[in-house]
Amino acid sequence: MAKIKLDLAPPPETIKHTITLLLSNDDEADLEIEYIYRDGQQMVEYANATQEKGEKKVAKSKASKVDAVEETPAKINYVENRKNRLKEDVAAVMEIAKGWEFEDEFNAANLIKFENKYPGALLAISTGYFTALQGVRLKN
C-alpha cells in the first residue's frame, strides 16, 4: 500500500476535472472543466446557501399558487419554464466552475448555447463538481 503524504498547505483555488458528456448519437465526448475548490467547511456553507435558495423558491412558488386561484387550470408555457430553469441551472454552474477547455469564454450566454446544443451538459458539469472534489480529497 502506497503511503500518502499529508500536509496542511493551502488548497488550490481551482481544480481541473474531465467530465464525459453523452451525445444524442450514443457517442461520448470528454470536456475538461475548471472547478472552484471548496474545502469541507466551505462545502457545508455552500450546501446551506443552496438549500436556503431552494426553500425560498418553493415558498415563493406556493405563495403565488395560493394567490392565483382560478376556475380553470392555467396553460403551461413550456418555453418560459425552460428559460427560467435554464437560467437557474446556469447560475448554479457559475457558482461551482470558472472555466473550460473551449476557446469560447466561460460565461452564462455560452453555457446556455452549450446546454441547448448538448442537453444534459449542465447536469454533467454539476455532477462532475462533486466527483472532482471527492477525487481531490481521496488523493490528499
Write a structural description.
It is built from four helices and three strands, in the order ββααβαα. The model has no long low-confidence stretch (mean pLDDT 87). It has 140 residues and is an alpha+beta fold. It has a domain at 12-47 and 96-134. Strand 1 (14-22) and strand 2 form a beta hairpin. The protein is globular and about 65 Å long. The protein has helices at residues 40-67, 78-96, 108-117, 121-139; strands at 14-22, 28-36, 97-100.
Question: Which characteristics define this entry?
Answer:
140 residues, alpha+beta, 4 helices, 54% helix
**Strand residues, percent:** 15-25%
Total helix count? 4
Order of SSEs: EEHHEHH
| Share of helical residues | 40-55%
Strand order in space, largest sheet: 1-2-3
Radius of gyration: 19 Å
Which whole number gives the mean pLDDT? Answer: 87
Characterize the overall form: globular
Which residues form runs of ≥5 with pLDDT under 50?
none
Helix-and-strand structural type: alpha+beta
Task: Report the end-to-end length measured between terminal Cα atoms.
Answer: 15 Å
Kindly state the number of beta strands: 3
The largest pleated sheet is described as: 3 strands, antiparallel
Sum this structure up briefly:
With 140 residues, this protein is an alpha+beta fold.
Layout of helices and strands:
Elements: E1 14-22, E2 28-36, H1 40-67, H2 78-96, E3 97-100, H3 108-117, H4 121-139
Antiparallel strand pairs: 1-2, 2-3
Helix pairs in contact: 2-3, 2-4
